From TrEMBL, chain B:
InterPro entries: DUF1023. It comes from Streptomyces coffeae. This is DUF1023 domain-containing protein. It comes from the Bacteria. Residues 379-543 form the DUF1023 domain.
Length: 108, 632
C-alpha cells in the first residue's frame, strides 16, 4: 500500500514542481513586460497559462483525494470490500464531465 | 504589433515559455507511467476483489488526465517554438534594416518611418532637403482605390520608384528602401502574431476534470492546426526518408535534435507510431496517443449513431412465409432491428481490441510483468496491434509471436495473453532481459476455409514482418547481435515462410506451433543457421498434417514442418489440440512443457530443449542438427 500511496503523492509533488517551472518560464511574457505588452500571442499565452495552471491544480487535487482513499483502504479503514469499492466509485461523482455538448461549443 | 514592439521583442521569451510546457508534458508522461506501473501494481498487492477493480478504474481515469496533459502541452511547446521561430525571422530582418539606417545616419522614428538628412548637389542654389518616408510591406493589400484597376500598393511602389529616380536628394531612395524593409518586417511579425494567437487560445485546457471523447478529438484537431501553422518552423525538419529502410529511419531519427524529435512526435503520432527503426519507447508514446484518439473517435461515432438511429422495435408478430399469414401468439425479430444491431455492433466491435490493449496496460506489475510497449496500433481494416512486454530495445532476448487464423485487433485479447505467457515463461529461465512481442501486424485470414487456403494474406504480411524485424535489429542496444526468435502459430507460420522467401529474415531462431505448411520445403530456406528451426505438433492438433499442406506446404511434394525431411527440431509437447501451445497455469505459475520448450529456445538454452523421438523411434540427441536434406 505504501508504494501505491507514494505514487500518487509523488505525482502531486511533481505537478507542483512543474507548475513552478511553468510559471517561471512565463515571466517574460507577463502583461507589463516589454515583450508581453502589445503582442496578441502573448495575451493568448497568458490565458493559456491560466487555464493550464487551473487544470493542473485540479489534477493535483484529484491525486490527493485518490491518495487519501488509497491510504484509508490500506489501513483497513473501510469495513469491507464493497465499502472500498464504493469509496473509489464516489470519485466518479466528484469529477463529472460538465459539457452538455461537444467540445466545439466549449467557450474557448 | 508595431515597430517599437518588434524592436524590443525577445523571441527567446516565447521559447522559454515553450520550455515550461515541455517540462509539464514530460512530468505528465512520467506520472502516467508511474500510475500504470507502480501504483496499480502496488494496489493489486494490497486490495482485493471489487475494491481493486474500482480503484484501478479511478487510477486509469487519473492517468488519462496526465496523458491528455502530456499530449496537449507537447503541442503547445511546438506552437510556441514555431511562433518564436517566425518572430525571430521578422526581428532579424528589422534589426538588419535598422543597422543599415544607422550606418547611413538616418533616424528611425517610433512609427517605423525613416528620416533622412539634406544632401546632394545644389539645385537652384540650395542643397536638396531631407525628409521622412514611411515604408510599405509587399503582399499587403491597402484597399485604397487609387487605381481601381489594380492594387494601390503597386501604384504606390511605382510612384516611389519614379520619385526616387528623379528625386534630387540621393538619400531619398535609400531611405525608402530601408523604410520598406522595416514595414515588411513589422508586417511579417504581425502575420505571425495574428496567426498564432487564436491557435494558442484553442489549446487552453479542458474546463472540467473528465477527459471525454471530445477532448481527445479536440487534441487531434489541435495537432493538425499547429502542424499547418508550423510549416515554416518545421520546413527544415525533414520528414522521414520516403520508403526508407528501418535502418534509414533509425538514422533519420538519431539525426534530429531533441526539440525536433519532440515536435515531430507531438504533431505526427500516427506516422511515427508505425515507423520501423524508431525506438520502442517513442513508438509506444505515439501509439498510446493514437489509441486514445481512436477510442474517442469511435465513441463519438457511437454517440452520433445513437442520436440519429434510435433503437427500432425489436419484435413483431411472427409471419408464416409459406401461407402468407401471421402466426398467432408468436413473435420474431424485425429486419429493421437486425440491421440496426449489426451496424451498431460493427462500430462497437473496434472497441474490443482497444479494451484488450488497455487491460494489458493495467496488468503491468502483475508478478513482475514489465511495462507494455505499444509498437503498432491501427483501427483501420481488421486492425493492427503490436504490443511488447518489456522494452525490446534494451532486451537481450526478444521473441516475436505471430498468431494465425482469426487474428485481428478485436480478437487480440488471447494473443496478447500468449505474449504475456511467453514472457513469464522465458524470463523465469534467465537472468538476462527478455522482451516478448505479440505481432498482429497483418490482415490475417479470419476463417480457416476459404480464407486460410489463400496465399494472398501471407504474401502481404511477409514484407511487413521483415521490416518489423529489421526495425528491432536497428534499435536494439546490441544491434543485429541481439537474439531474436520468431514464434508463430498456424497460419502465422506461413507468413514467416513467406518473409524468409521474400527477403532476408533477420532472426536467429524460429519456432513453429501447429503449422499447416510454411511455403518452404526445408528449414534451410528459412534464413537461420543450421539447427535453429524448432517445431511443435501437439497431440490432437488435426489442423496440422492435414489438408493444410496442400495449400501451404513447401516444394512439389508439399512438405510441412512436422515432416522429418523438413529438418526442424521436433520439440516435445504436453498440451492438446491446435490451441494449447501457450498454456500456462497462472495460479501456480507453472508453464506447460509446450510453452517451456519455446522459452528455452527464446533464452538460448538449446541443450535443455526436450525433443520428440523421430518417426523411426530413435530419439534425436539434443545436439543433432543435420536433417537428411539440409542444403549445405
Amino acid at each position: 500500500m505504501d508504494k501505491s500511496g507514494q505514487g500518487s503523492r509523488q505525482a502531486s509533488g511533481d505537478i507542483s514542481t512543474a507548475l513552478t517551472k511553468l510559471a517561471e518560464e512565463q515571466k517574460g511574457l507577463g502583461a507589463g513586460s516589454t515583450t508581453g505588452g502589445k503582442i496578441e500571442s502573448a495575451a493568448a499565452q497568458r490565458e493559456l497559462h491560466r487555464s493550464w495552471k487551473r487544470y493542473l491544480k485540479g489534477v493535483s487535487g484529484k491525486c490527493g483525494t485518490f491518495q487519501d482513499r488509497l491510504e484509508k483502504a490500506g489501513d483497513h479503514h473501510y469495513k469491507n470490500d464493497a465499502a472500498t469499492m464504493r469509496a473509489f466509485n464516489r470519485l466518479e461523482g466528484l469529477y463529472k464531465d460538465t459539457k452538455p455538448v461537444g467540445g466545439e461549443s466549449r467557450d474557448r | 504589433m508595431d515597430y517599437v514592439t518588434l524592436k524590443s521583442l525577445k523571441p527567446s521569451e516565447f521559447e522559454d515559455a515553450a520550455r515550461g510546457y515541455r517540462t509539464v508534458s514530460d512530468m505528465a508522461s512520467q506520472a502516467k507511467d508511474d500510475l500504470e506501473q507502480q501504483v496499480t501494481a502496488g494496489m493489486r498487492r494490497s486490495l482485493e476483489g471489487d475494491g481493486v477493480d474500482a480503484a484501478v478504474e479511478q487510477i486509469q481515469k487519473l492517468a488519462t488526465n496526465f496523458h491528455y496533459t502530456q499530449v496537449e502541452c507537447a503541442i503547445i511547446t511546438t506552437a510556441l517554438n514555431s511562433l518564436a521561430y517566425e518572430l525571430r525571422l521578422a526581428k532579424d530582418k528589422l534589426d538588419a534594416a535598422v543597422e543599415d539606417a544607422e550606418a547611413e545616419k538616418f533616424t528611425v522614428q517610433s512609427d517605423g518611418s525613416v528620416s533622412y538628412p539634406a544632401s546632394g548637389d545644389k539645385v537652384d542654389g540650395k542643397v536638396p532637403e531631407g525628409g521622412t518616408v514611411k515604408g510599405s510591406a509587399q503582399g499587403k493589400a491597402t484597399n485604397n482605390p487609387i487605381d481601381p484597376a489594380g492594387d494601390a500598393n503597386d501604384t504606390a511602389e511605382a510612384l516611389k520608384r519614379q520619385a526616387s529616380n528623379h528625386h534630387d536628394n540621393p538619400k531619398y531612395g535609400r531611405a525608402v528602401a530601408i523604410a520598406d524593409r522595416i514595414a515588411q518586417a513589422v508586417y511579417e511579425a504581425t502575420q505571425a502574431d495574428e496567426k498564432w494567437a487564436p491557435k494558442l487560445r484553442r489549446l487552453k485546457a479542458d474546463d472540467d476534470m473528465v477527459v471525454a471523447a471530445e477532448d481527445w478529438a479536440d487534441a487531434k484537431k489541435d495537432a493538425g492546426g499547429v502542424r499547418s501553422g508550423a510549416k515554416e518552423y518545421l520546413h527544415d525538419l525533414k520528414a522521414p526518408p520516403k520508403g526508407g529502410s528501418p535502418k534509414e529511419n533509425a538514422e533519420w531519427w538519431k539525426g534530429l535534435s531533441k526539440d525536433e524529435q519532440d515536435a515531430y512526435a507531438a504533431l505526427n503520432p500516427s506516422t511515427l507510431g508505425k515507423l520501423d527503426g524508431i525506438p520502442a519507447d517513442v513508438r509506444d508514446e505515439a501509439n498510446r496517443t493514437n489509441l486514445a484518439e481512436a477510442e474517442a473517435a469511435i465513441n463519438l461515432k457511437l454517440d452520433r449513431f445513437d442520436k440519429e438511429r434510435p433503437e427500432p422495435t425489436k419484435y413483431e408478430q411472427r409471419w408464416d412465409n409459406i401461407r402468407q399469414v401471421p402466426i398467432q401468439g408468436e413473435v420474431q425479430v424485425t429486419q429493421a432491428w437486425k440491421a440496426w444491431k449489426a451496424e451498431r455492433d460493427g462500430i462497437k466491435e473496434r472497441l474490443k481490441g482497444i479494451a484488450a490493449i488497455q487491460i494489458r496496460f493495467g496488468r503491468t506489475g502483475e508478478r513482475g510483468l514489465p511495462q507494455a510497449y505499444l509498437m503498432g496500433f491501427s483501427p483501420e481494416g481488421r486492425g493492427r496491434a503490436i504490443i511488447a512486454n518489456g522494452n525490446p530495445d534494451s532486451a537481450d532476448h526478444i521473441a516475436v509471436y505471430t498468431p494465425g487464423t482469426g487474428a485481428s485487433l478485436s480478437n487480440s485479447n488471447g494473443d496478447i495473453n500468449r505474449g504475456v505467457n511467453l514472457w513469464k515463461t522465458s524470463q523465469s529461465l534467465t537472468d538476462q532481459d527478455v522482451s516478448t512481442v505479440t505481432w498482429i501486424g497483418y490482415d490475417a485470414p479470419q476463417d480457416i476455409f476459404p480464407d486460410a487456403t489463400q496465399h494472398g494474406y501471407a504474401d502481404n504480411a511477409g514484407g511487413a514482418y521483415n521490416q518489423f524485424i529489421d526495425g528491432l535489429n536497428a534499435t536494439n542496444k546490441s544491434g543485429s547481435d541481439s537474439h531474436i526468435t520468431s514464434v508463430a502459430h498456424s497460419y502465422g507460420t506461413t507468413t514467416i515462410g513467406m518473409a524468409a522467401k521474400e527477403g532476408d529474415l533477420g532472426v536467429d531462431d524460429i519456432v513453429f506451433a501447429g503449422s499447416p505448411g510454411a511455403r518452404v520445403d526445408n528449414a534451410a530456406d528459412l534464413d537461420v543457421s543450421k539447427g535453429h528451426v524448432w517445431n511443435e505438433h501437439a497431440r490432437g492438433d488435426n489442423l496440422v498434417n492435414g489438408t493444410g499442406r496442400f495449400f501451404h506446404g513447401g516444394g512439389i511434394s508439399r512438405i510441412d514442418p512436422t515432416d522429418d525431411i523438413f529438418g526442424a527440431n521436433q520439440m516435445a509437447t504436453d498440451t492438446d489440440g491446435h490451441s494449447g501451445y501457450w498454456d500456462y497455469d497462472d495460479k501456480t505459475g507453472k508453464p506447460s512443457l509446450s510453452i517451456e520448450n519455446q522459452g528455452r529456445v527464446i533464452t538460448g538454452h538449446y541443450d535443455e530443449v526436450k525433443l520428440k523421438p523421430r518417426s523411426d523411434g530413435s530419439l534425436m540427441p539434443s545436439d543433432w542438427r543435420n536433417p537428411i536434406n539440409w542444403n549445405d
